[in-house]
Amino acid sequence: MIFAITTLGCKVNQYESQLLREALVERGWCEQPFSSPGADVYIVNTCTVTHRSDAQARNLIRRALKFGARVIATGCQAKVYPDEIRRISHTVAVMPFEEMGEALGVSIPRRITGFCGHGRAFVNIQQGCSNHCTFCIVPGARGVPWSRPAQEIVEEISGLYDAGFREIVLSGINIGLYEGGVAALLERVLACTAMPRVRISSIEPWTLTDELIRLVSEEPRMCRHLHIPLQSGSDTILRRMGRPYTARYYRGLVENIRSLSSEMSIGSDVIVGFPGEGEHEFEETHSLLRDIGISYLHVFPFSPRPGTPAAAWSARPDSRAVKERVALLRDLSLRKREEFIRSQLGREAEVLVTHAHERSFQGITSHYLHAKAAGRVRVNDRVRVLLEEHCEGYVRGRLLG
């Protein structure tokens, strides 16, 4: 039997697709590219965080249906808005990920042993979220928070190290809710595994503890990179969003991180056009992000999710204003990224090789910079590179030693 799988959305989705991939291969299935005909089943692991991700999933489902094979939709959109998918065709099987094993006659493993198509491995540590931000549908898709046992995570990471991986990214729906604390889990991972590079994925500002900041700032094997969603720099909008912090709190958090590690790469997420956002509220966001030590931004126009409180609210800015504001923040992000990259030029960096070609390679630094250089290396090698030139989307460097 032949399967094809494509995955949209977050690192947790990527991790779950890998679990399913390994279960199918264990039972003798063979994988082929999703874009090619000839598979017995096509699997679309969907995301529903925005209208755009919904549309992408529906397009992939329609494309798979043209091959005339069995099509299964799983993931968050399949769980929250299954009828939207069923309207595409009654032949599409729609189910939550928890039912995929039974549907395909396989047993889903508790841990992964590899990560297809990636130079780094994502390791899921928890599921669910209890914050219920007014714009977010994820709690409805992922349920209440629960955490994986630390020993199971340690064993999985050790297995990935034995398989050749040299960086893992601890991931989850809201990793700051990990039972016992992310810092304690990291200390155990660092003590009990040989994994040389450990990174944490996006973490909410109110869950980022001083102990965790210290670990990421000082521990040599921790990547110097934090992604901390802001969403808005206006206290008025933050309250409407149900975000339990203020702009002043976020500013202080970034300043605290910078005091411990001036070279830390700090990313953030921002939503533009949330109901009630006027020029004043947007300027509060813009000025906050302009003034603090952010390294890059992910900017999203507000996407109302049916079933969330914010989807029913009026007082949304018009589409032209939203486009202008998105453009302003994306331009700010480019300037922030360029400023951070310039601060790294002329320095040596360890690069984890993610793609190796005959005479060149590319990879990622601890600070989450994408680097390219000439040289003969292998995927998952860790090499020293002198960062020399900022090119569009990456840094060009010179392989040392």
Descriptors:
Transcription Regulator spoIIAA, alpha/beta, 4 domains, 401 residues, Rossmann fold
Molecular structure report:
With 401 residues, the protein is of the alpha/beta class. It folds into 4 domains: 103 residues, 3-Layer(aba) Sandwich (Rossmann fold), CATH 3.40.50.2300; 109 residues, Transcription Regulator spoIIAA (2-Layer Sandwich); 121 residues, Transcription Regulator spoIIAA (2-Layer Sandwich); 52 residues, Beta Barrel (OB fold (Dihydrolipoamide Acetyltransferase, E2P)), CATH 2.40.50.140. The chain contains 13 helices and 17 strands. A 5-stranded parallel β-sheet has the order 2-1-3-4-5, sandwiched between helices. Strand 11, helix 12 and strand 12 form a beta-alpha-beta unit. Helix 7 packs across helix 8 and helix 12 runs parallel beside helix 13. The longest helix has 26 residues. The protein is globular and about 55 Å long. The model has no long low-confidence stretch (mean pLDDT 97).
The end-to-end distance, rounded to whole angstroms, is 47 Å
Shape field: globular
In the sheet with the most strands, the strands line up as 2-1-3-4-5
SSE arrangement, N to C: EHEEHEHHEHEHEHEHEHEHHEHEHEEEEE
CATH fold call of the largest domain: Transcription Regulator spoIIAA
Would you identify the regions where 5 or more consecutive residues have pLDDT less than 50?
Answer: none
CATH architecture of the largest domain: 2-Layer Sandwich
Number of helices: 13
Number of domains: 4
Mean of all residue-level pLDDT scores: 97
Strand tally: 17
The share of residues in extended strands comes to 15-25%
Query: What portion of residues is helical?
Result: 25-40%
| Level-1 CATH class name of the largest domain | Alpha Beta
